[in-house]
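Q: Got a minute? One more chain.
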Amino acid sequence: MDLKYPISQYKPQPFSEELRLQWLHDIQMLPQDLERVIENLDEVQFNTPYRPDGWTVKQVVHHLCDSHMNAYIRFKLAVLEDNPVIKPYNENDWAHTTDVDRVPVNICTTLLHALHKKWYAFLKDLSEEQLERTLHHPEHQKDLTVWFLLGMYAWHGKHHVAHIQTLIDRNNWK
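A: Always. Here it is, folded:
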């Protein structure tokens, strides 16, 4: 198994209503899926990296929270502005800030529940035209559609839940 990409890397897909509904469901369910996978972990387990040279489970949870807050704003900018330029950030630096050490993961899951309810409500009624709107990512020097981002963030949540689940399975933590 590839410990870095346990569900493989994200692959863009052409629009389909079935896929739109699946990705919306994935966005909607991420907080519950994350809570389910971390609910019985102890402090030692939260401080265990999911792979060699990888983040700890605690850092992964904080990363999901930070990343998805940024994503929500990016989606709104893309839908409401004309090809806005987003601000990239170094996610690894963010994973090593003091709040990650000091703030319990349940704060992140609570925030993710609220954020994903709001995000889902925003996304669920977007038209195909709105899903084709773009933002510009200066780090990658390309325009990305809302549709691409929807799939990427649906994948992103599942990707990190899989990191934690595979760590639990490998270590036989029950």
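A: The two ends are 20 Å apart (CA to CA).
Q: Perfect, thanks.
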